[in-house]
C-alpha cells in the first residue's frame, strides 16, 4: 500500500514538473497562471496552467509523505481517488470556455481524471487486504 501511494505521488510530482518544460508541454508560450485561456498542452493533449502544474506538484508531495504509513497511504489513495472523481464530474458539468474552468480542464483531462480516480480507489481497496494468518486445524 505504501509503495503504491508513493509511486502514484512520484508520478504526480513528475507530471507537475513536466508541465513546466517547453517541448514536453506544447504551446508553452501560452501557459497561463490559471483559467481556460491557457492553451499549453502537456504531451500535446492535456490542458495545463501554472495552477494546474502546482496542484500536481502538491498532490505528488502529499503522496510521497502520506505513503510513509499504511493508514496515510490508504487515505491518500482512497480520498485522492474520490477527489479525482469529483473533479471528473466537475469537468463534465462546466463549460470548457467558462470562468468556472479555472484549473483548466479539457476533455482529455476529464477522462484521465476518471481513470485516475477509479485506479486510486481500486489500489486503496485491493491493497488494503491483509493476509490472514494460517491456523493449524485442531485434531
What does this protein look like?
By secondary structure, the protein is mainly alpha-helical. The chain has one domain. The chain is 56% helix and 4% strand. The protein contains four helices and three strands. The protein has helices spanning 2-18, 50-66, 70-93, 107-126, and strands at 25-26, 41-42, 46-47. It has a three-stranded antiparallel β-sheet. The longest helix has 24 residues, at 70-93. The termini are far apart. The model has no long low-confidence stretch (mean pLDDT 91).
The global form is: elongated
The topology string of helices and strands comes to HEEEHHH
Uncertain stretches of 5 or more adjacent residues: none
Give me the secondary-structure category. mainly alpha
Tell me the β content: under 5%
Total helices: the number is 4
Helix content: 55-70%
Residue-averaged pLDDT, rounded? 91
Largest sheet descriptor: 3 strands, antiparallel
- Radius of gyration from the alpha-carbon trace, in angstroms: 18 Å
**For the largest beta sheet, what order do the strands appear in spatially?**
1-2-3
Give the number of DSSP strands.
3
Q: What count of structural domains?
A: 1
Q: How many angstroms does the end-to-end distance come to?
A: 37 Å
Features:
single chain, mainly alpha, three-stranded antiparallel β-sheet, 56% helix, elongated
Please sum up the structure shown.
The chain has 139 residues and is mainly α.
Amino acid at each position: 500500500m505504501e509503495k503504491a501511494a508513493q509511486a502514484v505521488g512520484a508520478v504526480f510530482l513528475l507530471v507537475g514538473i513536466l508541465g513546466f518544460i517547453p517541448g514536453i508541454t506544447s504551446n508553452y508560450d501560452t501557459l497561463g497562471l490559471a483559467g481556460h485561456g491557457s492553451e499549453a498542452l502537456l504531451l500535446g493533449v492535456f490542458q495545463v496552467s501554472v495552477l494546474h502544474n502546482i496542484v500536481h506538484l502538491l498532490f505528488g508531495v502529499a503522496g510521497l509523505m502520506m505513503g510513509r504509513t499504511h493508514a496515510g497511504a490508504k487515505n491518500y489513495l482512497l480520498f485522492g481517488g474520490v477527489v479525482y472523481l469529483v473533479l471528473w464530474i466537475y469537468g463534465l458539468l462546466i463549460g470548457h470556455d467558462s470562468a468556472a474552468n479555472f484549473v483548466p480542464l479539457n476533455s482529455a483531462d476529464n477522462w484521465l481524471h476518471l481513470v485516475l480516480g477509479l485506479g486510486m480507489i481500486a489500489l486503496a481497496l485491493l491493497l488494503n487486504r491483509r493476509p490472514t494468518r494460517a491456523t493449524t486445524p485442531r485434531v
